[in-house]
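Researcher: Please translate sequence to structure tokens.
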Amino acid sequence: MRGLRASLAWAAIAASMASCADAFTCVDDISCGDGGRCEPTGFCSFVDGGCPAGRRYGEHASASLAGTCVEEPIAEGTGTTTDVVTTMTTSMAVTTHDETSGDPATGAVSVTSSATDATVTSDVTSDVSSDSGSSGDDSTGGGQRIEIGPLLVEDDFDDGAMWPFALVPGAWLPSGESAPGHAFMGEYPTGSAYYGYFRFRLPIALPVGTIITAAHFEVGGLGDYLWNPRSDALRIWIERSTDAAQVSSLDAYPETANVVAAQLGNESVRWPEVGGLSWNVLETNASPQLVLPFQELLDGDDLGLAEGAHVQLWIGADDLGNGNREVAWVDRSGASDNVGRLWLEVELP
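Model: Translation complete:
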């Protein structure tokens, strides 16, 4: 049964690749990938010196816009735009912004995997402009805003797939399912959530009173299995823990009676927020905003989250009982860099 499903999944990859010209609707600049910008039309554009405005729509825009020049230049200096530039280095630079003064200040924080002692981090910088006479939203108390990311899944055992199987309480594949770097999430078998999990280490402390202002997750796609992009969707939970433990046994499956590690929060986010999820194959898939579940996690303990603590996302089917249907994604055991990653923007008290 599993072998047949894997074969069908790879067939689905080929079918999905054949239809990769379908329009892709962006939600923000990050969802467009390197150099991309999400235009007001909802489609991605990229730098092109041959266009009057300097940008051209990508091949995955709508049929009427794909490959055409963007008509109007994007206004800059409005005081509401934050440009985030990421570069892989040996440490993570956490960019801060003092809402009371408007002066940015950057401090370096090292992020090290406890399993490999390998530093897996990146630089994050921001260019924040402000309107004259305005220095931020005073209603939040004028705290310090910090942008963190991308946080990467650091270790092979920091992501994987879990699902119920036959009479066994759960099945667990931390190092790929049908091949290294290849895992599924969705519904399998019918009526049972087939979870993907993703664990990230925080490079700074988030004390009590911290406000989550933005949060989103991305992961590379590999294909799907009986997935209906017109109606099927995923749902994202965040594990309720001040330091989520690395999954180490079948007992971590969230729906088993004796579960200890994976206590999912009450707040969750449907992916996408409405409609069906069109899963990108051999490209990045970006989630909606995850502010509510992250804020629930942070507010759920009087101690906040310490520097070096781990947060863990669990992703399964949005609703159950509609038959076997899953999407395939890139896990850490493979050679790809397109593994799970997380961006956060917070305001410290």
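Researcher: Any highlights?
Model: Residues 1-21, 73-93, 95-141, 257-261 have pLDDT under 50 and may be disordered.
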